[in-house]
Amino acid sequence: MGLLNSTRVSATVGGKEIILETGRVARQANGAIWIQCGGTVALVTVCEAQLDTPKDFFPLTVEYAERMYAAGRIPGNFFRREIGRPSDHETLVARLIDRPIRPLFPKGYGNEVQVLATVISADGENDPDVLCITAASAATCISSIPFAGPVAGARLGRVDGQFVLNPTNEELKRSDMDIVLAASRDAVVMVEGEAKLVKEQDLIDGLNWAHKAIQPLIDAQEELVKLVGKPKTEFVPKQDDPELFAYVEELAIKSGMEDALRTTDKLLRKDARKAVKDKVKALMATDEHYADDPVAQAAIGEVLEHLEKKLVRQRVINEGTRIDNRDTKTVRPIEIEASVLPRAHGSVIFARGETKTIAVTTLGSSSDEQKVDTLNGDESKRFMLHYNFPPFTVGEVKSVRVSRREIGHGHLAERALKAVLPSAETFPYTIRVVSDTVESNGSSSMAAVCGGCLSLMDAGVPISAPVAGVAMGLIKDGDTYTVLTDILGDEDALGDMDFKIAGTAEGISAIQMDIKINGLPTEVMARAMEQARVARLHILGVMAEAMPAVRELSPYAPQHEEVFVNPEIIRMIIGPGGKNIKAITSATGAAIDIEDSGRITIFAPTQKAMQAAKEMVLYYDQHAELGKNYNAKVKRILEIGAIVEILPNLEALVHISQLDTNRVEKTEDVAHLGEDMMVKVIEINGDRIRASRKAVLLEAQGIEWKPEDTARPARRERGERGERGEGERRDRRGERRERSDRPRREHKED
Prior knowledge:
Blueprint: E1 7-13, E2 16-22, E3 31-37, E4 40-49, E5 60-66, H1 88-101, E6 112-121, H2 128-142, E7 152-159, E8 162-165, H3 169-173, E9 177-183, E10 188-198, H4 200-213, H5 215-228, H6 242-254, H7 257-261, H8 266-285, H9 294-319, E11 334-338, E12 346-352, E13 355-364, E14 370-374, E15 377-381, E16 383-388, H10 404-418, E17 430-439, H11 444-459, E18 468-477, E19 480-485, H12 489-494, E20 497-503, E21 508-515, H13 522-546, E22 559-564, H14 570-574, H15 579-588, E23 591-594, E24 599-604, H16 607-618, E25 629-637, E26 641-647, E27 650-655, E28 676-685, E29 688-692, H17 693-700, H18 707-710, H19 726-740
Parallel strand pairs: 5-6, 16-17
Antiparallel strand pairs: 1-2, 2-3, 3-4, 4-6, 7-8, 7-9, 9-10, 10-21, 11-12, 12-13, 13-17, 14-15, 18-19, 18-20, 20-21, 22-24, 23-24, 25-26, 25-28, 26-27, 28-29
Helix pairs in contact: 1-2, 1-10, 2-5, 4-13, 6-9, 8-9, 10-11, 15-16
């Protein structure tokens, strides 16, 4: 076998061939896939390691990285290399890969698993993110790691009313949806994306179509497993002691677990559950069979967690009521308070149940746009939404950093609001929304959508329609599916689905679905969407009562104006090394964006600053006015007069006869290089300007300037030359002859 030999399979989806190859590189990994579509290539590997100390969660890590050489680019940072810290985009793609494969590992599997996806070639046409979902599944399928795959990833678009699988970047620009999905043979397991207010049924139809279209990728992975798949590591899940489980559950029921789980307040419910756990521990400590059994003591938490899940789910299925006594379709109470921060451009407190967020909108200039270094080149964002979830939100003590979850939730909320924002042409501000979660009991990302929308309206951003979001849950019992509207944190943890849907009254703008079961039938997904639509309309109604319309632009928002100048003087406005523009911004605090066309956009903190910045910019684009006095600077001394600069880059001739009221023998007797001179513009002939110091001096003496006083004599027509006397001509000729009679200077020959 050669060093570069490989095994290859392929599938055609969406009219494009996708190649899955293994064995050429990364052969020491447990599983490795080279995946290619067109000129886009990614290498995805999976490895595992045994842990010395088992963890109480599955230690799966997924990392995604884009090598700049993939697109023939050199990184734009100081180090000129990929510095290790993933960008927000890389983090978001890593989450896309993680979420569909994580539920497919066996419950209780304790080995550390690492999936690394690296983009090594990018053609700018085919996105690597969905390819990496498929490759991660394929790499794990052919490895020895237990895995219930395969799954395949794809992107769904709709162009001119027709569904498109894995659209190109150019097609995406014309698409009204950009949905990433992952699916197994039988069901969709993950959905995330944005849409331009698409109807629920259209989205369901698209997902059904895409699910069928990606089946060849499932076939290709199964074929690859037959060719090179490694035997799977035998994994036997930990066997629970049924007697211990039954005993602990009995003690918990006697200690009031059911009543504790019916406590509606989150914090009180937490205290009640802890009290039950303490009672169970105390009772077991007195039991001769389990008092000195460390295994039994360690199992208490696990057994109680299992019991809580069972009791909550049974209550929903049997009674139709939830932890906080709501039915399955009711939205928690909503309270809204706008303009809560005196100097912010737009601010809102949005509370839904025990989840509360402070959403703040800030408006900035075009210079505040976020610059992003991507495979497709440098890009900029004029709208950003940042989501924060500090530890005090849930009463915890943790290190404060931006987590993957925060980046993901912020991105989802950003997508939800992007569809209703005004264009840069009609509203040229850079917009930043920050959603600070301050209390949480589930659905905080959707609170960011609702609060973020209201803060935009409070700031005066002319959105096309209000947007609201709601998180849907699911309880599956056999073939019975119960959909829950506006889920709590505990319902997210104990349930089978977290399905976030945001949009306007017209349609969906963003969607994200994660499930903990092996798949979800699309008819159940359709039911969840319809239930979410009804809830969304209710939330929009409450939002409309609190803020019926977009408010006036905040008085603290930057002032904005546009001016147009001659493109030829742009270099003067900027100045050498940016000297002039820096002086303007420093003096006024304004942000100034200059386009080659001569369009200048000015953002200033106040109206006064705006006026000052505008005047300073237009100073360089002034035009001379006939009869107006200017404080000019002498630029050149000539025999016939002086050249003076009356305005930036605008010069005029002051003839020697116009330098003074008295006769001037030499220009330098009056005009001195670099000195100022007050002059009056007395003639404008195209780009030629004449000025007079004499006129200014006479005005100082009370003598009014009249244009005819300084007008040049009219030029004689050619016919007038014939009226000259012969003598005049003879004299001129004679003069010339006299000059010609002068002895010529002899030139030395070389």
